[in-house]
Amino acid sequence: MRRRHEPGQDWVDLSHDASTGIETIRAHFNGHAYDPHFHDEYLVGVTEQGLQEFSCRRAVHRSTPGRVILIEPGEIHDGQARGEEGFTYVMLYLRPSWLIQSCTRAADGSFPSHPAGFRAILNDEPRLATAILRAFWTLHLPEARLARDEALDALAAALNPHLGASRVVRVGEQATRAARRARELLREQMEDDVGLDELARRCGADRFQLSRAFRKAYGLPPHAYLVQLRLTAARQRLARGESPASVAAAVGFADQSHLGRWFRRAFGLTPAAYRAMCTNVPDGRSSPR
């Protein structure tokens, strides 16, 4: 059954489907919702109520009730309400492996070989919105396995016509060699406290040139990008039931409070709350073995 929420308050309801790895989120925000961040999953959702405004692909987008939002992995986006009533939306976080496998089946094996992305951020096709909402509720409540499988197959079929070449991959291919190398180093040594001078030296570039090239290619300066890598890794560990304190140490945050501040700014809830929603394990207890 759906949870009740007090009018005028921000809230986030999250569910995690263990068999597919898909997360479903239904949330409401008044004013500021999220700082700029990215995900490793494909995000597909629908605005339920209010005016949902966000920046993505170097442009501002506004979604109204019934509009579909499509964001590919690695795309930086934020979120805020425009209007006193705030906004409510639903979103599915689809793993790339699930999307590729499911859309390949839906397209009778003709899925493109290039990395897939979405042709447009916003979409007004009613069939797609209906498929997203049906898949969302069958997973979020949840329904019987057969109903969930059928809803996910219908979602894959509805998404397939809207897939094209990945914009994130294309921009990355256009990045300078130094920017690409810096990104590789940050991913490989995410937990290390590397300085900009050292990073630039290892990439064979001047620190100022590297900062400009990196931001042009990936939309964030190196440190902000590193924080996002750490947050993505933290989400994965928390979803497996690891404690916020151990996660903070493992991914490179100074301590649990440091992780908590960044996590809430990016995802709208605390690491402990996210862990509990994914695992049904409250903070302060170990996950079942």
Can you walk me through this structure?
- InterPro entries: AraC-bd, AraC_XylS_family_regulators, Homeodomain-like_sf, HTH-like, HTH_AraC.
- Pfam families: AraC_binding (PF02311), HTH_18 (PF12833).
- It comes from Pyxidicoccus fallax.
- The chain has helices at residues 96-106, 126-140, 145-159, 167-174, 177-188, 196-203, 207-218, 222-239, 244-251, 256-267, 271-279; strands at residues 11-16, 23-29, 32-37, 42-49, 52-56, 59-63, 68-71, 77-81, 87-94, 116-118, 122-123, 163-165.
- By secondary structure, the chain is α+β, with helices and mostly antiparallel strands.
- The protein folds into three domains: 11-168, Regulatory protein AraC (Jelly Rolls, Sandwich), CATH 2.60.120.280; 175-219, Arc Repressor Mutant, subunit A (Orthogonal Bundle); 226-280, Arc Repressor Mutant, subunit A, CATH 1.10.10.60.
- Helix 2 packs antiparallel against helix 3 and helix 5 (177-188) packs parallel to helix 8 (222-239).
- The chain is globular.
- Mean pLDDT is 90; it is low at 285-289.
Key descriptive features of the protein:
about 290 residues; alpha+beta; Jelly Rolls; Arc Repressor Mutant, subunit A; 3 domains; six-stranded antiparallel beta sheet; four-stranded antiparallel beta sheet; 11 helices; 12 strands; globular; disordered C terminus; DNA-binding
